[in-house]
Write a structure and sequence with these properties.
The chain is of the alpha/beta class and 349 residues long. The chain is 45% helix and 13% strand. The strands form 2 sheets. Strands 3-2-1-4-6-5 form a 6-stranded mixed β-sheet, sandwiched between helices. Strands 7-8-11-10-9 form a 5-stranded antiparallel β-sheet. Strand 7 and strand 8 form a beta hairpin. The longest helix has 30 residues.
């Protein structure tokens, strides 16, 4: 397995042997396998651990376990504790999303402060399959079907060449100690439900399901690249700079097929969703002056073009008026006659 690991990171150019890598270690089977592989390959690394305070004393035991391992093996150890529940409530997100944002933000801070080249996570082939099925069930489109990339910006995933069976075998052969997170078996969480309920059923149909999905994820990733290049090529020809916005010829748009798909990919970067795109297309034959909004932009339909611009927010402030002196202008230029008065309506009495 060590040979496969070394070949994978070298062939895929994930990092160089001299690079300083920050390993993200939870204490579970996967991350402890990654830690063992990096040690066995004599790579240059340190360890980072997040205590999310979600499992009471068990969370503290996870941290203590990794800290002791690093102490015993002379490995530099970085740790942080988060009040994840409080953060999730404050930001109106799920606990899982809060934990993800907190850990990746902190990992990046540690990377920059300590001059690490990359941050390594312990995702493997089964994680790719689970992620693809989650994305497929949510309708994320082709962008969600490439699963998990082995390298993106400062994040690398050097275990994507292994599946969970290989990792289990490696753990047993090398007697690797790890911490078991009991929440991983709780099927109320979407990922766990897919892992324990959905994938086993699919493996009954295709015993090589995980490998099949991983192969498909690579094909989808390559297809997405081709699609992105074509989309950008057409967009450059259609989107004409108009001040700070763009002017788009409606007749030229109509020549594209499939129109809705093209326009969706053109406009999603401006925060328009599929329903918005349908409304824009339906408005092609309508009267000029129609306006379509996203959270950040607006499209005005004139006779022959769509005018795309960023929404300009007008700053307003409240002003209490108690007397004429409180008006925010020079009263000398305002014609106020002695006949001016406000009648007091009985309804306000």
């Amino acid at each position: 397995m060590i040979d496969k690991f070394e070949k994978y990171y070298q062939v895929n150019e994930l990092f160089n042997k001299a690079d300083k890598i920050l390993l993200t270690v939870s204490g579970g089977k996967d991350s402890m396998t990654m830690l063992h592989l990096f040690r066995s390959a004599n790579l240059f690394f340190e360890v980072a651990h997040c205590n999310f305070k979600l499992r009471g004393e068990e969370s503290n035991k996870d941290e203590a376990f990794i800290r002791q391992y690093c102490t015993n093996n002379n490995i530099e150890f970085h740790s942080v504790a988060f009040n994840t529940n409080e953060n999730a409530q404050e930001n109106g997100v799920s606990i899982q999303m809060a934990a993800r944002d907190l850990r990746y933000t902190w990992f990046e801070e540690i990377r920059k402060e300590n001059n690490f080249k990359f941050i390594a996570t312990a995702h493997h082939k089964n994680d790719i399959a689970e992620t693809m099925l989650i994305n497929l069930s949510k309708g994320t489109g082709i962008a969600g079907l490439h699963g998990i990339r082995n390298k993106r910006d400062s994040i690398i995933r050097p275990l994507l060449c292994f599946d969970s069976v290989e990792i289990d075998s490696y753990v047993k052969e090398n007697e690797i100690q790890f911490r078991q997170d009991q929440s991983n078996s709780d099927t109320k969480y979407t990922r766990n439900s897919i892992r324990h309920n959905v994938i086993p059923e699919l493996e009954k149909i295709n015993p090589s399901f995980i490998e099949t999905v991983v192969t498909a994820s690579v094909q989808f990733s390559e297809l997405e690249e081709i699609l992105s290049q074509k989309i950008e090529e057409e967009k450059r020809q259609l989107f004409v700079q108009d001040g700070e916005g763009f002017k788009i010829d409606i007749n030229l748009l109509k020549e594209l097929s499939p129109l809705k798909t093209y326009l969706y990919y053109f406009l999603k970067v401006f925060n328009f969703n599929a329903a918005d795109v349908s409304d824009v297309i339906n408005g092609f034959e309508g009267q000029s002056g129609q306006v379509f909004y996203s959270s950040s932009h607006q499209i005005v339909k004139d006779r022959t073009h769509l005018l795309l611009n960023k929404i300009v927010k007008v700053e307003t402030e409240e002003l209490e008026i108690h007397s004429i002196k409180d008006f925010p202008f020079d009263c000398d230029i305002v014609d106020i006659t002695s006949d001016f008065k406000i009648e007091k309506s009985s309804s306000f009495a």
